Amino acid sequence: MPRPPLLLQYHRISGRFHLSGDTVPPGLFRRHLAQLRAWGYRLATPEDWRLAKNGRFLPAVAYLTFDDGFECVYHLARPAMAKFGGVGAVFLPTAFLGRPNTWDASFGVRFRHLTPNQIRELHHHGWIVGSHGHTHRDLTRLPDPEVLEELQTSARILAQILGTPPDTLAYPFGHWHPRLFPLLRQAGFRLAFAGPRGLPQHPLALPRWGVYLPDLTLFAKIDPALRPLERLRLRSINAFATLSSWAMHRWPWLAWVSRMERPEP
Ligand SMILES: [Zn+2]
Prior knowledge:
single chain; about 260 residues; alpha/beta; TIM Barrel; 6-stranded parallel sheet; two-stranded parallel sheet; binds zinc ion
């Protein structure tokens, strides 16, 4: 089987039950890591990530990314991946550090975001810590000055925590547009991850394979024959996530129904 570089997009690792398909239980996550090894993949090391930032993604290497920066990345993903000799990348909406995910459609069950201390420790372990915008808004729907504000605010906060400015980003909802590229560069970003519909080889819109609760195996993301169908499935999941989050902002009573606070302005 050919082993092209594999870019995976996770959100949460948790055993808590709630109505969201983007949470993978810890046991399943460990099974994914074992599957990757069995298929001849190894997890990216800090050196692999350094090469990736220069545009070189290596075959037979799995690059695991975690959007939204929940505490489970520190408590579950980091130790599990360390056993397999690798590190991942985590992307944070910086307005919510150390706080619950009030911006998200999580239907009554909240998850806490990483604290500055946990972020610092991940960074020291060789993890990539990047931006996921400041307030997790869809950048493609904002005018240029607001995009720049989101990017620069989040970069400034991460620079204060890490002691070095971030150069990596994951687009909120995976949504990108070429219009955003110069703004990303202006804010100091040189590697940016999209959802399933990215531009292969383009450092500012790298496509990733999303991993969700029903993914008992990662095989569909690796087998060339299954990949087109998988891409279609991921697009529909992504569309639903975008729709529910958009609805939360549009109709605040939905947030109340799901017992959440409104996101801060
Ligand atoms: Zn997100």
